[in-house]
Amino acid sequence: MNLAIDTLKAQVIAEVDRRRDELVELSLKIHDNPEIRYKEFKAFGRITDYLESNGFALERGICDLPTAFRAIYGSGRPAIAFIAEYDALPEMGHACGHNIIAAGSVGAALAAKLVVDQTGGSVVVLGTPAEEGGVGKAAMIKNGAFNDVDAAMLVHPARRNAATVEALACIGLEVEYFGKAAHAAASPHEGINALEAMVQAFNNINSLRQHIEDGARIHGIITNGGEAENVIPAYSSGKFLIRAQESGYLDKLCIRVLNCFEAAALASGAQLKYKWDDVRYDPMNSNMVMAELFTKNYQILGRSIDPPDPSNGFGSTDMGNVSAVVPAIHPSVSIAPMDVLIHTPEFAVAAASERGHQGLIDAAKAIAMTAVDLLLDSAAMERVKREFSDD
Ligand SMILES: [Zn+2]
Ligand SMILES: [Zn+2]
Predict the structure, then answer these.
(1) Contacts of 181 (CB under 8 A, 6+ apart)
(2) What's the CA-to-centroid distance between 97 and ligand 1, angstroms?
(3) Nearest to residue 103, comparing CAs of 215, 193, 25?
(4) Ligand 2 centre from 167 Cα, in Å?
(5) Ligand 1: distance of its center to the CA of 96 in Å?
């Protein structure tokens, strides 16, 4: 058994190396044509054409999302899914390095394809649009895209090598206040100040902040604060994100945050209108059996897991939603020095650097090798499933 696993892992490593130039080219093409959420048409076209020309069966535009896809090679179970993200950030290009996620998952699938020929089962690439602020995977889960998948993986570029990631539950809230305009000097007593309502809501939230659980976050911006400084603002609007380590606590926190807005409405006399996002990010539930297999494969490639950084908190990802419905991991690969923060122009540069290219090659190899473990070792696949159902 071990010999066969080692032989197949050597095959997937060799296959990723053989395709290195193609994968780097795919990564750079996506990087050089950044497209924001749900508009990732060029990336979608390149990735799907490449997979199709290499023997994958393609379903394009699944789940009513024009830039989502499913690519399958082989048949039956286990079905191991590599997740491709390919959206960029507005104004900043690929400052989250999703070009590396896409090329890494595609490379892993093309290598794992060789394994499926020998072991049976199937390898799937799920193209998931709109990770940045769209929660695209939630729509795909709702439409059943993950129903026939036994395990799901991607590798995100980062500053550290990691097998697991913490990610917060998160929901967005849009708020509007409606007041009454008046001359700001001649007749302010006739006005109802919608901007002051918004400012008061911020102050209420800032007071609440001291009394919330560690790891929770509340942050927002004012998107409209009035038109002229000599007019009492009749309208204000803002956008907020509320995050917590657990979904249950997020529910409770949302009630308290809404109270902050309602209290400001009462105090100011402005009318409050609000809308919670239809979908929210779930916290990431890393499958530790998969994470351990991934770690061993990283070590075979000469990468070791870096210690966590206690000075940094966590964001949110819609892989959290995936991890709620199938066993999943969201490891990371180091492509940038520690002083280069993700979601910055400097990180976008790193995502197209030599170090970024090496990161995507190692990422592709490591998740392809983890797929070898799951396709060949049914006991490992059972442990993955047992951990998931016990959670
Ligand atoms: Zn991001
Ligand atoms: Zn990202």
Answers:
(1) 191, 231, 232, 233, 234
(2) 8
(3) 25
(4) 11
(5) 5
Give the tens place of pLDDT for each residue, 101-135.
999 999 999 999 999 999 999 999 999 999 998 88
Q: What DSSP state is assigned to residue 158?
A: E
Tell me, in angstroms, the distance from the centre of ligand 2 to residue 200's CA: 33
For tokens 């296959």, the residue is 15
Number of neighbours of residue 5 by Cβ within 10 angstroms: 17
| Segment 43-59, tens digit of pLDDT | 999 999 999 999 999 99
Domains of the chain: which residue ranges?
2-167+283-390, 169-276
2-167+283-390: which CATH number, 3.30.390.10, 3.40.630.10, 3.20.20.70, 3.90.25.10? 3.40.630.10
> Measured in angstroms, how far is the CA atom of residue 86 from the centroid of ligand 2?
9
Ligand 2 centre distance from Cα of residue 47 (Å)? 18
Identify the CATH assignment for 169-276 out of 3.20.20.140, 3.30.70.360, 2.60.40.60, 2.40.40.20: 3.30.70.360
Ligand nearest to the CA of 319: 2
Residue 177 CA to ligand 2 center (angstroms) comes to 33
Residue 240's DSSP bridge partners are: 173, 220
Between the CA of 273 and the centroid of ligand 1 the distance, in Å, is 29
- Those residues whose beta carbon sits under 5 angstroms from the ion ligand 1 are 96
pLDDT at res. 391: 80
Nearest of 129, 148, 153 to residue 81 by alpha carbon: 153
Mean predicted confidence (pLDDT) in 332-359: 97
* Gap between the Cα atoms of 183 and 231, Å rounded: 5
Residue 38 DSSP label: T
Tokens 């998969």, located at residue: 290
CA distances from 298 to 129, 287, 306, 332, 387 (A): 27, 16, 11, 11, 22
Least confident of 210-214, 291-295, 308-312: 308-312
Rounded to 10 degrees, what is the CA torsion of 72, 76, 82, 88?
50
Q: What is the DSSP string of 315-355?
A: ---THHHHHTTS-EE--EEE-S-TTS-SSSHHHHHHTTSHH
